[in-house]
UniProtKB/TrEMBL annotation:
Its main location: membrane. The lineage of its organism: Bacteria, Pseudomonadati, Bacteroidota, Flavobacteriia, Flavobacteriales. It comes from the Bacteria. The keyword S-adenosyl-L-methionine does not apply. This is Potassium-transporting ATPase KdpC subunit. The keyword Methyltransferase does not apply. Keywords: ATP-binding, Cell membrane, Ion transport, Membrane, Nucleotide-binding, Potassium, Potassium transport, Transmembrane, Transmembrane helix, Transport. The system is composed of three essential subunits: KdpA, KdpB and KdpC. It comes from Paenimyroides ummariense.
Length: 186
């Protein structure tokens, strides 16, 4: 018995030391080389600070709407809705989002609405959406702001982030950066 307990206690102490001191210190040290020392990218706009890597709520018609959040954009606790695609309550929620989008975007067909405008991400805090999610909102924003659609489409192209090394992941747009650039348009 002594033959097994002593090595188990030693291993436990080594693992406690590794996972509570060494590993966190290594991650913290590497993060110091990241922008803003690993605290995330912060943008100051209109006197407010916003984290670029956390989803923000945009629901005004003069802005590009952001992806819905299952957690109300509360960064203290990310998470999905945990409701499956056949759950009646979830389907009703998605239908309500679709109906709301169609009311605010007349002339758009239901089939044109990208899925990322009516469903929340797994974390509930996704700061990005697809290029199609931006382009489907152009007519509404152009009409409200009196901006040419071509100028808005160019803004979308300018704000589009390409996949990592040109092959990992889809093209995406950070909604916060896009709306800040939209406010800067004259």
């Amino acid at each position: 018995m002594k033959k097994h307990i002593l090595p188990a206690i030693k291993l436990t102490l080594v693992m406690i030391l590794f996972f509570t001191v060494i590993y966190p210190s290594a991650v913290w040290g590497i993060a110091q080389f990241a922008p803003n020392s690993g605290k995330g990218e912060i943008i100051e706009h209109n006197g407010n600070k916003h984290y670029v890597n956390i989803g923000q709520s945009f629901t005004e018609d003069k802005y590009f709407w952001s992806r819905p959040s299952a957690v109300g954009y509360n960064a203290a606790g990310s998470g999905g809705s945990n409701k499956g695609p056949s759950n009646e309550e979830y389907l009703a929620e998605v239908k309500t989002r679709i109906d709301t989008f169609l009311i605010h975007n007349p002339g758009i067909d239901k089939a044109e609405i990208p899925v990322d405008l009516v469903t929340a991400s797994g974390s509930g805090l996704d700061p990005n959406f697809s290029v199609q999610a931006a382009k489907v909102q152009v007519k509404r924003i152009a009409k409200i702001r009196g901006i040419d659609e071509a100028k808005l489409n160019q803004l979308i192209d300018d704000q589009t982030e390409k996949p990592l090394w040109g092959m990992f992941g889809p093209e995406k747009i950070n909604v916060l950066k896009l709306n800040i650039a939209l406010d800067a348009l004259k």
